[in-house]
């Protein structure tokens, strides 16, 4: 693409690339797959007669949505064979994304796990409508449905998500403060401090993908979570480093062992306590975070 910098097709694609990537990522939960979708979108876009395109953004979103739907259906088979719980691939985001409350919520680990329970078409309609405010007619073209059908799908998907999404939207500042307390308690092995910051019915979901050690089922309850977290730390002789970050539009923690990234932890906070922890250890899902973190440290 770099060789066609002045080409109108390239300029249009580059202008909308961030939007297209976010659409694909929120539909797929995988940055690697989203990048593949963008490549497929580009290959189809350069074959289009631009003079026949009235709205470049809408046309590109339509291609991206269709390619994402194709990939989402094949990903379902991969997830069925996945070892242990599946979590979205963590995505480092800038602080300004966290300040956009609606976008930050739509990218959060907690909500993206809820989106996993939707059908591919429901997920596409929900993402395009709720996260990006795209009109029903434009969505209908993207998913090959009538506008009336899309309205029904959107209503059904919204009702499904609302019944399962976090009960309240928590500010970035509150989430960061709670995570800081959690981090201090972990670093000092303060068991009571951990219990104080965890909700009684806290749930931990860990994703090792069968490559790194992780719980094969969600762990529920503050006492069990404390034993799980501190037990894992006690089994390693490596030097643990925990640092703050912004992942999927929300405050998160990066865990490193002897300087090597070991995992990314996101949290769901309710009533001033951690109600959910999402810990991604699968190395295949950490390559993007690792490379981008290394770049910021240079």
Oligomer: single chain
Tell me the strand order in the biggest sheet.
2-1-6-5-4-3
CA-to-CA gap between the ends?
27 Å
Low-confidence runs of at least 5 consecutive residues: none
Brief synopsis:
The chain has 14 helices and six strands.
Looking at this protein, list some descriptive labels.
alpha+beta, 298 residues, six-stranded mixed beta sheet, 6 strands, single chain, 14 helices
Describe the structure.
The protein is of the alpha+beta class. Helix content is 54%, strand content 16%. The chain has helices spanning 8-15, 17-28, 31-45, 56-80, 95-99, 101-107, 109-115, 120-131, 136-143, 147-162, 172-187, 191-197, 222-234, 287-297, and strands at residues 198-207, 219-220, 240-247, 250-257, 260-270, 273-280. Strands 2-1-6-5-4-3 form a six-stranded mixed sheet. A hairpin with a 2-residue loop joins strand 3 and strand 4. Helix 2 (17-28) crosses helix 3 (31-45), helix 3 packs across helix 4 (56-80) and helix 9 (136-143) packs across helix 10 (147-162). The mean pLDDT is 90.
Architecture blueprint of SSEs:
Layout: H1 8-15, H2 17-28, H3 31-45, H4 56-80, H5 95-99, H6 101-107, H7 109-115, H8 120-131, H9 136-143, H10 147-162, H11 172-187, H12 191-197, E1 198-207, E2 219-220, H13 222-234, E3 240-247, E4 250-257, E5 260-270, E6 273-280, H14 287-297
Parallel strand pairs: 1-6
Antiparallel strand pairs: 1-2, 3-4, 4-5, 5-6
């Amino acid at each position: 693409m770099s060789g066609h910098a002045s080409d109108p097709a390239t300029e249009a694609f580059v202008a909308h690339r961030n939007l297209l990537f976010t659409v694909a990522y929120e539909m797929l939960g995988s940055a690697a797959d989203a990048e593949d979708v963008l490549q497929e979108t580009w290959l189809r876009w350069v074959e289009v007669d631009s003079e026949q395109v009235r709205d470049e953004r809408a046309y590109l979103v339509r291609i991206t949505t269709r390619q994402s739907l194709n990939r989402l259906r094949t990903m379902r088979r991969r997830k069925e064979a996945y070892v242990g719980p599946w979590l979205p691939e963590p995505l480092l985001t800038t602080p300004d994304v966290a300040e956009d409350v609606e976008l930050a919520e739509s990218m959060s680990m907690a909500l993206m796990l809820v989106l996993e329970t939707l059908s591919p078409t429901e997920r596409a309609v929900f993402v395009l409508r709720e996260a990006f405010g795209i009109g029903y007619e434009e969505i209908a073209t993207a998913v090959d449905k009538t506008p009336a059908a899309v309205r029904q799908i959107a209503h059904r998907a919204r009702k499904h998500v609302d019944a399962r999404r976090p009960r309240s939207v928590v500010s970035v500042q509150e989430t960061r403060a709670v995570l800081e307390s959690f981090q201090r308690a972990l670093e000092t092995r303060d068991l009571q401090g951990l219990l104080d910051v965890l909700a009684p019915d806290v749930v931990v979901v860990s994703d090792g993908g069968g490559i790194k050690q992780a719980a094969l089922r969600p762990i529920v309850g503050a006492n069990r979570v404390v034993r799980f977290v501190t037990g894992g730390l006690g089994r390693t002789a490596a030097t643990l480093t925990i640092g703050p970050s912004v992942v999927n539009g929300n405050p998160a923690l990066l865990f490193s062992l002897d300087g090597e990234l070991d995992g990314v932890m996101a949290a769901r906070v309710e009533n001033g306590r951690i109600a959910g922890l999402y810990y991604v250890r699968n190395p295949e899902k950490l390559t993007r975070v690792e490379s981008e973190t290394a770049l910021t440290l240079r």
